[in-house]
Write a structure and sequence with these properties.
Layout: E1 12-16, H1 20-32, E2 36-41, E3 52-57, H2 62-74, E4 78-83, E5 99-102, H3 107-118, E6 123-124, H4 126-130, H5 143-153, H6 158-165, H7 169-183, H8 188-198
Parallel strand pairs: 1-2, 1-3, 3-4, 4-5, 5-6
Helix pairs in contact: 2-7, 5-7, 5-8, 6-7, 7-8
Length: 203
């Protein structure tokens, strides 16, 4: 069992994972370590409010998980991503202070990373850093993401995108986050610029 003690209160934590089993495991691990776990969510579910969101990001869904990370950061939460590989852009200048840990990271490492990112620090596991960028960092946009990108290029808000596509505002926000993550962009304007340069979008 890992129990942390600190001069300041431990951050409140939420968990995101596609697998209910993984969600439950992370919730129990963090609760045992002394964190207040405010809730857990999966695809299509809103993220609970928290200081830190721990996101399970297996290889096949890592780009989607990075979209969730962007949404969490937009709400003011820090993020710890549990990944199979570290994308090269994670080490680029100007990136938010995230935690990047292997999915099999020890309990103590995860607990320490949660505390660190809550304090505004970046955490990158050395093993991941040595292998950064060994996977293809750019995943093609889905058809729906192309639709969202075209509406973003028109300057539409998440609410307007939701109305135009007949989806919820939360889902629109998720798709915008996924587009930004896949294009390696930090803003909507940068996403449009990158997409035009790549030939993904024609204005």
């Amino acid at each position: 069992m890992v129990t942390l003690t600190a001069a300041r209160p431990l951050p409140a934590v939420a968990v995101y994972a596609r697998s209910p089993v993984v969600r439950a495991g992370l919730r129990d691990l963090l609760a045992t370590a002394g964190f207040e776990v405010t809730g857990q969510s999966g695809p299509g579910q809103p993220l609970p409010g928290s200081d830190v969101v721990v996101i399970d990001a297996p290889r096949e869904t890592q780009h989607d998980a990075e979209g969730i990370a962007l949404a969490a950061e937009a709400e003011g939460a820090a993020v710890v991503l549990l990944v199979d590989y570290l994308p090269a852009r994670a080490l680029a200048p100007g990136q938010p202070p995230r935690g990047w840990l292997p999915r099999e990271a020890p309990d103590a490492a995860l607990a320490a990373a949660v505390v660190a990112v809550a304090a505004g620090l970046a955490v990158v596991d050395p093993l991941l850093e040595r292998g950064a960028g060994t996977e293809d960092d750019r995943v093609p946009l889905t058809e729906r993401e192309h639709e969202v990108l075209r509406l973003v290029a028109l300057g539409m808000t998440n609410r307007a995108i939701a109305l135009a596509l007949g989806i919820s505002e939360h889902t629109a926000k998720f798709h915008v986050g996924a587009v930004l993550a896949k294009l390696g962009a930090q803003s909507r304007a940068e996403a449009v610029s990158v997409a035009v340069r790549l030939g993904t979008l024609t204005l």
